[in-house]
Amino acid sequence: MNESGSIDSSRRCVWTFHQVSCTSSDLSAAERATLLAILLSISAITIAGNILTIASILYFRQLQTRPNVLTLSLAVADLLVGLLIMPFNAMSSMHNCLFYGRVSCRVHTWLDYIFCTSSIVHLSCISFDRYVAISDPLRYSDSVTHAALAAMLALSWFSFPIDGLVFMMQWNLVGLEEETRRSCPDDCEVILNLPYAVAITTCAFVLTMLLMALAYDRIYRLARVQSREINSLGAQVQKASSDGECLSKWNAMKRDHNATITLGIIIGIFIVIWMPYFVVSATEPMVGYQAGPVAWEVINWFTYLNSMANPILFAAFNMSYRWAFRLLVMCSAFRPGIRGVDLFNFMERPA
User: Fold this and answer.
1) Which structural domain range is residue 24 located in?
2) Which of 213, 198, 210 is nearest to 278 (CA)?
3) H helices present in 136-176, as ranges
4) Is the predicted pLDDT of residue 288 greater than 60, yes or no?
5) How confident is the model at residue 6 (pLDDT cuts 50, 70, 90)?
6) Which runs of E-coded beta strand occur in 237-340?
7) What would the pLDDT profile of 85-132 be if each residue is shown by its tens digit?
8) Residue 214 in contact with residue 130, Cβ under 8 Å?
9) Taking the mean position of all CA atoms in its chain, how far away is CA 198?
10) Which of 62, 141, 194, 220 registers the highest number of CB atoms within 10 A of its CB?
């Protein structure tokens, strides 16, 4: 970072040629370059993975199902995190500064809150959708209607932008005037007062985590029964391989079971990734804001890993997505008949 002017010795603030005042960085030029390369790599992987997810759902007919409407929307939210949030935060992490002014800091914080929270709510909606699909598959189409899907999408995208206005109006800083005076004006630090810290932790994490955990507990119990049925039906399929109806039912149950396992892993990763952020957010106002800038940078970037992890988990644990990604990456998706192929059983076909 190019610097000019004097350093405030009490707060170690520096004036840059951008005419902003930020905390001076302790990183050398080589350390900054290494950090930037790592963080931009995370951003690039997030962008590429979610573009593959979106392209797969839009292109392959087998993936164009009602549950995947939510998956597609989740991928859009995660893509926006990779495109609009991570690159700017990478620069901020490298220089301890956001060079685009204090209004842009508020807008960036607002968008960060919207996209990350939207991703969380999407996972809750996907858990509910999977619960309905597993618990009552015969009535799934009647329960998860187009109107219900639209309502879940609206909840995922439009409920939290209004709450995020708290950052734009800086209501989260009410009562924290002394804390804000200790930081440099353009550090773009996000500090939460106690009421808002408790509210955001409860609404955005505790309630969604409980909803997902309760839903998946029920899903897991049903999946164990389903697994036994799959094994039993698999034996029947081997004995009567010419029975098309039996084979079709077995494949459908395998796909549902596979999707259930994938969802369980995604929920587990979500809890592990987001737990540190919400624990620290809720306790910081109670202990006098003891977590340093470096700790917050690590915690923030840890949460962004969720947006990077979702496409990787789809590819790793869901056969249909794995083959869809592979066909797109290898530019084999445009061969005749590939768009309508049975991706779940594609391993039996030549690549």
Assistant:
1) 3-348
2) 198
3) 140-143, 146-158, 160-163, 165-169
4) yes
5) very low
6) none
7) 999 899 888 877 777 777 788 888 888 888 988 998 998 898 888 888
8) no
9) 22
10) 62
CATH number of the domain at 328, please. 1.20.1070.10
Concatenated DSSP letters of 147-158: HHHHHHHHHHHH
Beta-carbon contacts of 68 under 8 Å, excluding residues fewer than 6 positions away, are 57
Binned at pLDDT 50, 70 and 90, residue 72 comes out as: very high
- 135-139 CB contacts, 8 Å cutoff, 24+ apart: 135/218, 135/219, 135/222, 137/256
- Count how many domains the chain has: 1
Tokens describing residue 187 = 């550090």
> Locate tokens 């808002």: which residue?
196
Checking phi first, is residue 12 left (phi over 0); if not, alpha (psi -120 to 50) or beta?
left
Cβ-proximal residues to 341 (8 Å cutoff; 6+ apart), any chain:
60, 62, 349
Which H helix or E strand runs over 298?
helix 293-317
Report whether 181 contacts 146 (CB < 8 A): no
Q: How far apart are CA 89 and CA 35, in angstroms?
A: 12
The kind and range of the H/E element at 4 are strand 3-8
DSSP strand pairing (21-23 vs 13-16): antiparallel
**Burial (CB count <10 Å: 0-12, 13-18, 19+), residue 14:** buried
Long-range CB contacts for residues 163-172, cutoff 8 Å, separation at least 24: 163/113, 163/200, 163/203, 164/110, 164/113, 164/114, 164/117, 165/110, 166/196, 167/106, 167/109, 167/110, 167/113, 168/106, 168/107, 168/110, 170/106, 171/196, 172/196
